[in-house]
Amino acid sequence: MKRDKHIPLTETVYYILLSLFEPAHGYLILQKVEELSNGQVRMAAGTLYGAIENLLKLKFIQPVESGDSRRKVYMITELGKDMLRLDLERMQHMIGITEDAFKRGGIS
Amino acid sequence: MRKFKLFLDFEKEARWLNKMASEGYELVGRSFGYRFRKSKPDHANIKIDYRLFKKQADFVDYCTLFEDSGWEHLAGTKSSGAQYFKQVNKDADEDIFSDIDSKASRYKRLSQMYISLAMCYLPIFAALVTTNAINIDAFFNPKQLYFTPGLWDKTGADFWGAFLFETPFAFFRGFAWLAFPVMIALCLIFSYKAEQRYQKIKKK
Lengths: 108, 204
Prior knowledge:
Organism (chain A): Neobacillus vireti LMG 21834
Protein name (chain A): PadR family transcriptional regulator
Oligomer: heterodimer
Structural class of chain A: mainly alpha
InterPro entries (chain A): Metal_resp_DNA-bind_regulator (IPR052509), Tscrpt_reg_PadR_N (IPR005149), WH-like_DNA-bd_sf (IPR036388), WH_DNA-bd_sf (IPR036390)
Domain Transcription regulator PadR N-terminal (chain A): 22-85
CATH class of chain A: Mainly Alpha
Number of domains of chain A: 1
Number of strands of chain A: 3
Shape of chain A: elongated
Largest sheet of chain B: 3 strands, antiparallel
CATH architecture of chain A: Orthogonal Bundle
Number of strands of chain B: 6
Strand content of chain B: 5-15%
Transmembrane segments (chain B): 113-134, 174-194
Largest sheet of chain A: 3 strands, antiparallel
Shape of chain B: elongated
């Protein structure tokens, strides 16, 4: 099976998509990414802005209506969810074979 | 106070602005040169992004994201390209970029802007060439650019007065078109330099 060219997702893209299951504006995404990654991934404003622009272009996320006139609010699209699922399966496979390898290594 | 300077390196530009701030000159505008306001010396951390916006709402959203993150928008407009930010929250990150790619890609956007600027001048220049508006002969025989009747028969102060008076007009008549190829060349050089810097940062 030919793999989608966007897989694997980068760590930041993965967390941004994950944080957009519920609508959020830019700064809220920054906070959510930091929280979801246990403080491991801290994105700066300029980097996030570029990432959002790119994800909009790829149609992985979309703008949604909000009451806030100064902040745009985004949400993940079905395509974005598909991408997350594909990357999850990739990682599950890796986790599975790695655990097996460690188990076999542990017995011998 | 106004200062005129040209930078192709955002890091150098930011260092210069930080130095100005430490001497008590706060950046307030960047439309025609750099505009500063006298204020108290400040250990500022200024960072520069390069972005053009199609809609005002996009620009507002962009500035708001930076403000939320602890960066004050000092200068720059929807279509100015360069955007200047000053760190106002000590807890904020030290930089407006957290990875090399996004740090580099502002040079990519700068390079593209210079290319499109060059492309704007190109048709004007082409039109001048094709309509024979350019008189190459004037390089070898600049006398023909002077229209004052009997100028070359005058002598002494009379001659110099008339000659110097007409020289700026003659120069403009003969060589104003040069501004276009010069601008095109400069834009292409700047574009190339920005592209080089982009490649260099990406390789780091």
